[in-house]
Amino acid sequence: MGKHQKKDQSGKSGLKKNVFQWLSIGAVISFLWLTGLHTNVIVGIQQGMLYTGLFNAKIVDIETADGPFLTDTDYNFAMVTAGGEQVFLSDFKGKVTFVNVWASWCPPCVAEMPTIETLYTQVSEHEDIRFIMLSVDEERANANTFMSNKGYTMPYQFPASPLPNAFNSTALPTTYVVSRDGQIVYEKAGIADYSSPAFRDWLIELAEYADSSN
């Protein structure tokens, strides 16, 4: 057998191997997609990225934040709690409020949820810190099932009127922190780790600074 024949056969063998590998990858992706397991895979990857510390909420950005103040119209925003009670954004007025806009079908939302739960458990007893976990799921039952299955204790709500312009982000998740005087002092579009001691301490300081300034 000549050298050219051997080279051609080797090339064909390599091509077949590459095609087989890509077909195998495609089959795995198709299986994950059809079974819904692709979401779990994506969430697992993103949570692994959070654990690296690269996505910690940046205190440098927080300290220089200078967002808009909520208006009276913004405070008229109506929500429904998981228990079916109607509440308004104005009910949170005068408190430091952590606002997260999320959906149960959104992998980065799901990936960062454990870090928010950790933050909530650490500051939930502080009388001047409140949480609004605003689900934009079209089917509320999906959000209810998700939160129940995960065993999260943080409160969550559903929009009962159009979102205020201040919270109308095109990205999921998006997180805001509203100061006690109604200013948006933190805004983050996309995934982040909120379980860091630095972010927790900043949130507490923000609430207690308002006390000391009165």
> So what's the CATH class of the largest domain?
Alpha Beta
Q: Outline, from the CA principal axes?
A: globular
Annotated CATH homologous superfamily of the largest domain: Glutaredoxin
Summed over residues and divided by their number, the pLDDT gives a mean of 80
What does the largest sheet look like? 4 strands, mixed
Low-confidence stretches: 19-29
Number of helices: 7
Helicity range: 40-55%
Instruction: Kindly name the structural category.
Output: alpha+beta
Give the strand line-up of the largest sheet. 4-3-6-7
The ordered H/E elements are: HHHHEEEHEHEEEH
Count of separate structural domains: 2
Strand residue percentage: 15-25%
Cα Rg: 23 Å
What is the correct CATH architecture of the largest domain?
Answer: 3-Layer(aba) Sandwich
What's the N-to-C terminus distance?
93 Å
Number of strands: 7
Tell me the CATH topology of the largest domain: Glutaredoxin
Oligomer type: single chain
Care to describe what's here?
It is a single chain. The protein is α+β, with helices and mostly antiparallel strands and 214 residues long. It folds into 2 domains: 3-51; 59-213, Glutaredoxin. Helices cover 48% and strands 16% of the residues. The protein is built from 7 helices and 7 strands. Strands 4-3-6-7 form a 4-stranded mixed beta sheet. α1 crosses α2 and α2 crosses α5 (107-123).
